[in-house]
User: What shape does this take?
Amino acid sequence: MRIIHTHTHHIYIYLRFRVLYIYYLSRTHGARDEVRGRMRMANHNLLLCFATFLSLCMIFGPWISIEAAPLASLVTQLPNFNAIFPSKHYSGYINIDGNGENGKNLFYYFVSSERNPEKDPVVLWLNGGPGCSSFDGFVYEHGPFNFEAAKTKGNLPTLHINPYSWSKVSNIIYLDSPAGVGLSYSKNTSNYDTGDLQTASDTHAFLFKWFEQFPELLDNPFYIAGESYAGVYVPTLAHEVVKGIKSGIKPVINFKGYLIGNGVADGRFDGDKALISFVHGMGLISDNIYEDVQAFCKGQLEINSNDEKCSDSLQKVAKAIAELNVYNILEPCYHYPAEAAAKGNASNLPLSFQRLGATERPLAVRKRMFGRAWPFRAPVKEGLVPSWPQILAQSNSASHHNHVPCVNDEVATAWLNNAQVRKSIHAEQESVAGPWEICTDRLRYLHNAGSMIPYHRNLTKLGYRALIYSGDHDMCVPFTGTEAWTRYMGYKIVDEWRPWFSNQQVAGYLQGYDHNLIFLTVKGAGHTVPEYKPREALDFFSRWLEGQNI
Ligand SMILES: *[C@@H]1O[C@H](CO)[C@@H](O)[C@H](O)[C@H]1NC(C)=O
Ligand SMILES: *[C@@H]1O[C@H](CO)[C@@H](O)[C@H](O)[C@H]1NC(C)=O
Ligand SMILES: *[C@@H]1O[C@H](CO)[C@@H](O)[C@H](O)[C@H]1NC(C)=O
Assistant: This one.
């Protein structure tokens, strides 16, 4: 895990050589040996690594005493995964903020491209929250595996290859950020007091250290991507990266652009205004209720409006949509067993309804989704951002038994809290890093970066490419708000509203603007687009990265 910074140049040569060599070996052996037994392959890999290590010892002599991170971070096996890794995986901690144990230990899981890791872009993936782990994306969205739940609750899931993994076309880093989230931690819990600006600068520091360990990827095009509250993480981090490039700090990151899925940007666009037009358009409220809201709330769409008539009509909206799955209005809402018993069985929904949001994944879309999302009905405002667990602790709501509505994260929770899994991915055990939770309440997080619109304007005007996409059945950050703010940017339309296609079907709609800004919808997808529409998601992702027309 440690690089001793005495002879950086030699480390660089060593790393580049090693990675190319391992890559060569994996190519030449991979194709031929698909059918080999797991044990044999594992041993084989170990031998290759050892042989590589020895040959490099001979070439570089004294330098080899340096312990290079990638070798120590290579993931060689995972419990309940009985196939050959489709590409090299690395994982571990990067310590930032010096300060040893009291610094911030940021956990990453890096999946190298299954196509051409030397040339393919490097993409950093961030889930939102704030407080939610990027293993949400890894386990449930576009990671290299599909996770089949164990028959008995609490047991380890079985891992299968995900044919629509984003690692098919890119090198992708899943980062738990900021410290305190997922498997990232600090011994000094004062570090869990944080906010937008601190997080952006920490993640920038992480990137520098990460590229020091993977210098062979520094020339690849680099993109930042994320979802939901990462609508704030992504532009603020991009801003830091661009500042770094301008000031000539080394290493120079080959930053090209960013992608944001169902991301928050600005409370004026993402709040109740977006919600009301979404639920009306989707037929979830009547024309009468809609017209009352328009007439009485006069654009001041605040739930605590002092106007009684406005407040009353907003209550009608809230009542109409309260029992829906906020992350995809087509999906059933997961009821925890006690609630399910009281209310009847969620899977008793009509079959036609259950199929509406069907996915091509071999495994069902989860019925749960924890607020990796911006909490429902809490638009982006300056100041302290409550997490779902914090909101629930305050609300004392008996009806939800302290669970987030519609939420169940059993597979990821079982996997990431297993001691053997943690060992395999070089994560600290619970005694050090704490339990893994999809979204934590360990943070005290301030939204202090303001509206994202000036960030988007500056970044796109500097020539960075931006793809802003929305699953069009998400009610958490509805596409209506995203469509409105992208339009508000005021850029000339260069590719007028049109369907885009995947598998010869309309997969959604897009509008292309000047300055390489694209707004795109994914038809039928919820908050976590690739979870619902994996094929479509891989299609737009790869076309956009390659600079093709989507
Ligand atoms: C703990 O973190 C806080 C805030 O980041 C910092 O001011 C303090 O010096 C740290 N304490 C130690 C012992 O490192
Ligand atoms: C829910 O309904 C399904 C199908 O009707 C049934 O298999 C399952 O056992 C039920 N679960 C509960 C908790 O009642
Ligand atoms: C955007 O650019 C302007 C002009 O350079 C600058 O004054 C402003 O602070 C920038 N805002 C952000 C959020 O980057």
Q: What stands out?
A: The first strand starts at residue 89 and ends at 96. Residues 99, 102, 188, 190-191 surround 2-acetamido-2-deoxy-beta-D-glucopyranose (ligand 1) (CB under 6 Å).
